Each structure stands twice: as C-alpha cells, then as structure tokens.
Amino acid sequence: MIEQKGILFILSGPSGVGKGTVRKALFEKDTSLQYSISMTTRDKRPGEVEGVDYFYRTKEEFEEMINKGQLLEYAKYVNNYYGTPRQYVEETLEQGKDVFLEIEVQGALQVRENFPEGVFIFLCPPSLDELKNRIINRGTETEQSVMNRLRAAKDEIELMDAYDYVVVNDYIDNAVDKIQAIVASEHCKRERVASEYKKLLEVTQL
Prior knowledge:
With 206 residues, the chain is of the alpha/beta class. The protein has a domain at 8-36 and 96-203: P-loop containing nucleotide triphosphate hydrolases (Rossmann fold), CATH 3.40.50.300. Helix content is 46%, strand content 20%. It has helices at residues 19-29, 59-67, 86-94, 105-114, 128-138, 143-157, 172-187, 190-203; strands spanning 8-12, 33-35, 39-40, 55-56, 71-77, 80-85, 98-103, 119-124, 165-168. The strands form 2 sheets. It has a 5-stranded parallel sheet, with helices on both faces. Strand 5 and strand 6 (80-85) form a beta hairpin. Helix 1 (19-29) packs across helix 7. The relative contact order is 0.20. The model has no long low-confidence stretch (mean pLDDT 91). Essential for recycling GMP and indirectly, cGMP. It is found in: Cytoplasm. ATP binds at residues 13-20. This is Guanylate kinase.
C-alpha cells in the first residue's frame, strides 16, 4: 500500500480578498486538512490552549529559533513575534497529514524560500473594484486606509508569479471547490506517487 507524506498548502493573497472566510469554508467541507498552528510571543489569553491556538514562546526563545532557521516564516506585529515553526509542519507531514497555512503575501514568499516543496495558492479578487467594495463593507477603514490597502493589493497581485496556482474568489463555494481540486490533483502528481511506488517495489518479493 502506498503511503504518501502530507503536503504543505499555502493560501495567500492581498488583504481583504477573503482568505479567512475561504479557509473556514474549506475546513467545514474537508476535515482531512490540518490547520497550521502558529507560534507567538504574545501572552496567552483566557481559554487559549498551548499547541491548539498557538505555540507560546518568550521573545528570547523565538529569536533563538529565528537565528537557528527553525521557522518557515515570521513577522513582528505590535512588539510581538508570530511565525510558523518548521518542526511542527515537518512532523505533521511525516504523519501523512496535509498542512494548510493561510498567510499574508510577504509571509508566503518567506515560506517559498524556506520550504519550496510547498504548494502555493494565490487567492485574488475578481477585480480591484470588487476588492475595494469588500474592504469598504467591513466598515472599519478610513478612506485613506482603503486607498493604502488597494495600492498594497495591486503590488501583491503583481507577485502572483511566485505561486503555483491562482484561484479567483468570486464566490466562496467556487473558490473552495477549486482548492479541493488542487489538493486532489497534487496527490496524484506522478513525481509524488512514483517515488513512493518505487519504494514499495523495492521491498516486494516476486
């Protein structure tokens, strides 16, 4: 029996495109995916659990991991570090589970450098006008903030060449179906199946 390693899938795209919404809908339909647990230096909040919500580390521990190359990506927000621990991802993949990482574009580019065998999916809006409407409908942004986000989104969309797949988030169900198709397709890729099949042949007595 062929036993494949899991695959790291990275979903990324500009702010406001609906990454979180699509990821949530995907996980409601596909329970086989393992959501990537991030690491942080921020304090644990009431009700949060180590290894479920986050892996909690001190600033010194986190910076030591940065220096040792033990993070696939990291960033700093409001004096706290956030990042993706390499060991957790690799151990989960070895168990044959697919890991799903939802992340901003700059973080995805870091992962591409550190873990190029991952599968990178760029989620983009149907148009910049639609993205503008989605950001405005949040009701949390000033006019200047909306324009800044749109400029950033334009720059990020120009980076889609760094990705393996592009999914247009026109309707959530359509986007989820396409991502599920990508997951299935990646598991059927010849290079993934062939390497495992050859191992099986080596131990088969004929």
